[in-house]
Amino acid sequence: MSRTRVLAHARVLAHARVRAAVVAAATAALLAPLAACSSSGSSGTQDTKADARPGAADRPVTVTVTPTGEQVPAGKPVKVTSAGGRLTSVTVADAQGHKLAGKVAPDGRSWVSDRKALPGAAYTVTTATRTESGTAGSTKAAFTTAPADKVNKVDWRPGADATVGIAQPISLVFDNPVKNRAEVEKQLRITTSNNTEGSWGWITDWSGRDRVDWRPKTYWKPGTKVTLNGELNGTDSGAAGGWFVRDYTTTFTIGAQQIVKVDLDSHQLTLVRDGETVRRIPVSGGTPGGDKRSWRGTAVLMAKEGTINMNSETVGLGDAYDKMVDSSMRLTWSGMYAHAAPWNARYFGNSNHSSGCIGMSDANASWFYGQVRPGDPFEITGKDTKGVVAPGNGFGAWNLSWSEWQAKSALR
After folding, report:
1. pTM, entire model
2. Comparing C-alpha atoms, which of 330, 346, 339, 331 is closest to residue 360?
3. How far apart are CA 48 and CA 135, in angstroms?
4. What ranges in 114-240 are assigned the alpha helix state H?
5. Banded model confidence at residue 314, pLDDT cuts 50, 70, 90
């Protein structure tokens, strides 16, 4: 080969090497950014870190509130859920600023109110959220509930801050029928200072209305402090009953241990306090052999009514009497009282000759009236009576056994 051909071939090879080097350099330059975006470790960890950098994509939390809309049915808890992040706080308040309490679930994905949405209310739901990458945010939603077509109300005993006897039940009488008894009973909470065992029982009041009473298993211990929290607001009574639109609460204290023992056979009333006899009083009970007989069993002093007009026609006894009576202490709704009865003086201690009440002298009645308090039990015995006091005739729940009373709970 000539020298000229060799030199030419060398130049060609050198030029090829230069071109290859340029291509390789360009390729390396193009691949360098791609290599910087690749991950040599866990893609989830790296992706989270990348998403958290300023400017990186950060999807908002999706919050869902139930119920939603206008005029939605009341009586259900408010529920809030999140997707794509966590709830850190939830506030549900009506137009007056009253809040429905609740707690965010441990995983931050849901919140449910402790109380139900009330009828005829406008609610605003405000949430604080945090995305998976840590960005804080907030949302607002609103809904309204349909108004109550009927309202149910409650008359309850005893009144707030009262001191009552050892047989006093907690008694609620409803204006309208209660079909959803279990739901209503769940909202009634009793707290005592010494964990007293007791039970609710559903009965029919003397007025014919639905009623629920709470009584202890045995008589209260003196000094017990009792609180009723009836969180009924937003609870539906059921068909024909209507909604409850308020809560009810009362606190009371149990006084001294006093038991009134009435023996209609011996015509004696005995006041026993803390196990000791305080006084025996001669009395006269209801006339045997007809509708004027007294009730037996355990009656509870309902109220001290002082001087009142007693008219026999109001209790179905025709025109037998119509007079003003002193020191009147009501024992039943059907009209049995303990009271002063000076017109019957010749019968005290020897025979029953009243229209069903327990009568005594003016002096004894005045003294006795000052000793007893509402809630004291009257344990009445006697052969010729017209039966046991019914649970709804005053506070006659003590005439049922404990198991019979428990069976009257809607939650048993």
Report:
1. 0.80
2. 339
3. 12
4. 181-186
5. low
